[in-house]
Amino acid sequence: MSSLANEPELVSRIEDGIAILTLNRPAARNALSFSLMGELLEALARLAQDSAAKVVVIAGNGPAFCAGHDLRELRAMPARERYEQVFERCAALMLAITRLPKPVIARVHGVATAAGCQLVATCDLAIAANDARFATPGVNIGLFCSTPMVALTRAVGRKPAMEMLLTGDLVEAEEARRLGLVNRVVAPAELDTEVMKLARQIAGKSPWVLALGKEAFYRQAELELEQAYRYAASVMVKNMMAADAAEGIDAFLQKREPEWRG
Fold it and tell me: Which residue among 51, 55, 153, 254 is the one 20 to 30 A from 42 at the CA level?
């Protein structure tokens, strides 16, 4: 499926409380151009403030999820300043996904390589088609996947991550699931259904609690064990004092559906 030159690089819509951001550079296998990363950053900033969006899904149009950075664009402007701008924007994008106060699910088909694999590893959850494949192949072209490494080593074990980084080999979907890079693997025909099913399930929870829990998850993961427990305890106290906790517990005890206020 090809895209016309005047079509947007990012297509955004909200459906049943689910915001779907679709990378729309199919001819380039949705490579992350400087402008596409900028559009993603703007979209995430908007969604952070949009109460209509409970969960975000990142998908790709065409034959691939995302093939990484746009190498043609990088080689067209071989200047240090430009490279710094590109990788600073990439880091900002990945941090924006992690810091977004809403869960982000990657819907993966085709290949997710280099910065595309980084994008999958950065998302909170990922569901992949069983024919999807993953790689950090920069080493094959003299460009070690150093920034993808940051997300990859936080998603999978060190030795599997190092093997991916040193060999550049493609990893099949089931192996990616075993390693922890993706949560679930489904038939291609079931991918949309399964992604939306999971997204709707999560969207039914308290938005305030989801935001609190996501922030706490990433913060505690970087702390020493005793500090992590101290921090998590303070989060639990804050959570217990919230209206949605009172409502959720009362609804559970009264055997009814909760009515979230947050």
Answer: 153
Question: Rounded to whole angstroms, how far apart are CA atoms 31 and 137?
Answer: 14
Digit-coded pLDDT (tens) for 105-137: 999 999 999 999 999 999 999 999 999 999 999
Q: CA torsion, points 25, 31, 35, 40, in degrees to nearest 10?
A: 90
Contacts of 11 (CB under 8 A, 6+ apart): 21, 22, 24, 61
CA-CA distance, 141 to 192, in Å (whole number)? 34
Does residue 34 form part of some domain? yes
Residues 215 and 144 in one domain: no
CATH code: domain of residue 245: 1.10.12.10
- How far apart, in Å, are the Cα atoms of 212 and each of 50, 68, 94, 130, 177? 17, 31, 19, 33, 27
Write the pLDDT tens digit of every residue in 23-76. 999 999 999 999 999 999 999 999 999 999 999 999 999 999 999 999 999 999
Contact partners, residue 251, CB within 8 Å, separation at least 6: 257, 258, 259
Q: Which amino acid is at 222?
A: E
